[in-house]
Design brief:
Distance between the termini: 27 Å
Structural class: alpha/beta
Number of helices: 15
Strand order of the largest sheet: 12-11-10-13-14-15
Radius of gyration: 21 Å
Length: 451
Amino acid sequence: MALSQAANLVEKALGHTGDAITEQNLTNPAQDRAKYADPSGATMKALVWNGKGSVKLVETNKPRLVESNDVILKVTGSTVCGSDLHLLHGAVVEMQKGDILGHEFCGIVDSVGDAVTSLKPGQRVVASFQIACGDCMYCKQKLSSQCERTNDNTIENGMYGGNTAGMFGYSHFTGGFAGGQAEYVRVPFGNVNLLPLPDSVPDEKGLYLSDVLCTSWNCVVDTGVKDGDIVAIWGAGPIGQMAAEFSFINGASRVILIDGGPGAWRLDFCKEKIPNLETIDFSSLPRGTSVTSKLKEMAKNGPDVALECVAGEYAKGWAHYFEMLLGAETDTSEILNEAITSVKNYGRVGVTGVYVGYTNHFNIGSLMERGVRLIGNGQAPVHLYWEKLLKMIEEDKIHPLSMLTHRVLIDDMEAVYKAFEAKSDGMQKVFVETQFSAPAAEGSPALKRFQ
């Protein structure tokens, strides 16, 4: 918390780099009602960050059109992502109280700015979690997550040697944009960052094009999974589950999914959905057996590919726990080291789980000496994949509903976050309903209340 607030102060003192061409640090219309709130005075429900370990449902102002390329969206569906927990825990810097959360959402176009030509009120759309301008060097290649003109945060630029795109509901570190765990949301560059959904694809399927489907697909194809590969995946959450499905689609001969502790139940959940899946519960391995040794026992010399779908926030041992607690590192290297030492010589390791800064005790020796390819998959470029994946949904080739376990109300989001964080109630992926949501689609879970 102290680090996050210090980063806010430093950013304020330094100012932005000046490269962005859209309004930033607009994380809640109530912060300047005259400038950002709808002139009608209409209000909405929204979930906000309320300090480390706390979120709060509030009533705030409906956003207004701020720029000519804006779209105001009535949110018909959103969700909670494992990445949201990094915000909850304060692992991502530059959060401020009152910031509206949520980077995955779909909805109905409510109003459009004068420069929006491809959309009209009443249209069903899904939003990409990143905000792209559509015209810069990266956007022209559909590498939307690296847009050069929607986030000019100085601290991110200094830490990373460059900026990512702006992102909805993901701190001032990524531009400071209000998120979609709300009843309305402002979408900059609406022509670019909203994809129309056909009537044949209900919100409960189309919503996940916003992030999880594109992120899982990017993890698999960017790491180069190919015919005959043996793939090991760390993390049996929604990203790991879909990465397993997509690995088989891309030709993997075997997929081994790894999880444990409070999340061990997810291994059985995923295997029920993907029968060919093999699993390792790291928390039940015999004394003296590591994940690496178990993988080498299961596959001669280890898997060809390792996919990290967890994150650097979760320390397994005391050394990293205390180093992170004391600020000596921001991320643990334990899972990365497991992945590196597990793969075959010249194997490939893809990193999709979020790492925000620096790590200690990294096994660079194994990486170099054995020729292991370490691939930062980056924030997935949604625009590169979402049309292809939408078509695969329409053709019943991929199955977003397989990860959906809960339908919840936005009113209950404070309790939903607690359940999701605890990995309780069999909660894998949720669909968050608002007053604008359509009735549940066939195959969608029934509404469940959380208090």
